[in-house]
Design brief:
The complex is a heterodimer of chains A (293) and B (173). In chain A, 22% of the residues lie in helices and 27% in strands. Residues 56-125, 146-155, 174-190, 234-238 and 250-258 of chain A have low confidence and may be disordered. Chain A is α+β, with helices and mostly antiparallel strands and 293 residues long. Chain A is built from five helices and 13 strands. By secondary structure, chain B is mostly helical. Chain B has helices spanning 3-25, 29-45, 56-74, 84-96, 101-113, 117-128, 133-140, 144-172. The chains are: A alpha+beta (293), B mainly alpha (173). Chains A and B meet through helix 1, helix 2, helix 3, helix 4 and strand 9 of A and helix 1, helix 2, helix 4, helix 5 and helix 6 of B.
Chain lengths: 293, 173
């Protein structure tokens, strides 16, 4: 491995020292060949990310116990199902439970707090314009988690705080680098959702958090395409529930290199890119398809 | 064709190239994903300024580079990042790279098949599962540095293989 190669690899792996970064910058500026080399190696990284995620689940063993949800998710990716990946570390106790309200039932109007002050990755907001809700693909308030909702697998169903009452939620924690929250949603062997150029989805759920992050971001993604939300939760609103509506339009987002026409959509991820191991509760999840009236 | 349809057709065709450019420069995957979305929106907003007689991808990457630099500036307290001159050099190199994403993916698939199972498993842990080197080290029982070097060697070997295959395709074409 020559020096350029090492400098570039260290950068791509996020391991550059300040001195190496300075050297890499000099090399990129003074040598077009070094810059070409950088682009080629960065492309390998980017392409591996896409290609391997799509092929995941094939003949790769991951023996460590906590990796199993990843393997399940990866298998689902390859096999073509729609999933929400739920990764958590175990049954750690909730010592900071401060969620004090419950999400409304689906028929109740959202309370005043239920708004998102900043939404990014926009192509359209809320319900797709000119389209109508044509089909609820799946939904759950976790009141009867199983077997009424067989689509949900691996869910950490717990009583909703405080006290639980008769309601149930999904309990989640941030995890690892990805910090993906999730539950396996759907049977990956029976994919029912396929990409078409006119596919419009709305993913809707309520989230309550138990600590007080300043401006938590939540990313909802389907196979690399997604949207990031900055939730309107601050210290004054700690312990409340916020509704998130993720409008995902395949025609406007899933393009070349992501999904081919007719290909199974395999995953919906909820990413919680926080630095702490916060605890969240999720309830009233639904996934709906929209179509032209 | 409506302006919006024209934009979508161009954007979808070149989205992979724009994403690769951003992800190559920004190593925080979540932040890079966010920038991709910001850039997609910015491209649409600025599409009226796009000169359709010129190639779309270089224009899109130019817009993307501004967002990347803005991100670097916002994160400067967390540590040094690439300078504007270095980002420009990468932008120029990206614009010299004529290969499209599907061709690269096809070449990569072929090259992956030629790797030993153990190497494929290593790449799977790193890229499909998104594991950190520390996590891979714990799982595989090797030092973090050894795993990092192995991944770097594989990456470079794949780069050589992909470039060879792309050259062959170019010759055949």
């Amino acid at each position: 491995m020559d020096d350029d190669e090492r400098l570039i690899s260290d950068y791509l792996d996020g391991q550059s020292s300040p001195e190496d970064l300075a050297r890499l910058q000099r090399r990129l500026v003074e040598s077009p060949a070094a810059a070409d080399h950088f682009v080629q190696l960065a492309n390998v990284d980017s392409d591996l990310d896409l290609v391997l995620r799509r092929r995941a689940g094939k003949a790769v063993s991951t023996p460590r116990r906590w990796v199993r949800p990843l393997a399940i998710a990866a298998t689902a990716l390859a096999a073509g199902a729609i999933t929400v990946v739920f990764l958590w570390r175990g049954n750690e106790s909730l010592d900071k439970t401060v969620v004090t309200t419950r999400p409304p039932t689906p028929d109740e109007p959202p309370p005043a707090i239920a708004k998102h002050p900043e939404r990014r990755g926009l192509f359209w907001e809320g319900e797709p314009p000119g389209l109508r809700r044509s089909e609820t693909l799946m939904s759950s308030d976790f009141e009867h988690p199983a077997p009424a909702q067989p689509a949900w697998r691996g869910a950490g169903v717990v009583a909703c705080p405080p006290g639980g009452g008769h309601r149930h939620c999904l309990q989640s924690k941030t995890w690892g680098q990805q910090r993906q929250l999730g539950v396996t949603l759907g049977d990956w062997r029976n994919s029912f959702l396929r990409y078409t150029p006119d596919l419009h989805l709305q993913f809707d759920y309520w989230i309550g958090q138990t600590t007080a992050p300043t401006k938590p971001r939540i990313r909802v993604a389907i196979q690399g395409a997604g949207r990031t939300y900055v939730l309107d939760i601050d210290a004054a609103r700690e312990g409340t529930w916020v509704r998130v509506t993720a409008a995902l339009s395949s025609a406007r987002y899933y393009g070349e290199g992501a999904l081919a026409d007719g290909e199974a959509i395999s995953a919906i991820h909820l990413n919680f890119p926080w630095s702490r191991n916060d605890v969240f509760y999720v309830d009233n999840i639904s996934l709906a398809r929209y179509a032209a009236p | 064709m409506e302006r919006r349809d024209e934009f979508l057709a161009l954007f979808l065709r070149h989205q992979g190239q724009v994403e690769a450019f951003i992800h190559g420069l920004v190593r925080d995957r979540v932040a890079a994903d966010d920038i991709v979305q910001e850039v997609a929106l910015a491209l649409w907003k600025e599409f009226d300024r796009y000169d359709s007689s010129r190639p779309f991808a270089p224009w899109a990457r130019g817009v993307a580079s501004n967002h990347v630099l803005r991100h670097f500036k916002a994160r400067h307290k967390e540590g040094p990042n690439l300078s504007p001159e270095a980002v420009q050099a990468v932008l120029d190199a990206s614009n010299r790279d004529a290969h499209d994403v599907p061709s690269r993916h096809l070449a990569l698939r072929h090259c992956l098949e030629s790797l030993p199972q153990k190497s494929q498993a290593l790449l799977h842990l790193r890229f499909a599962s998104g594991m950190k080197f520390e996590e891979m080290s714990a799982q595989l029982g090797s030092s973090k540095e050894a795993i990092r070097k192995a991944v770097a060697r594989l990456r470079d070997g794949l780069r050589d293989c992909i470039q060879r295959r792309l050259s062959m395709q170019g010759t055949e074409a």
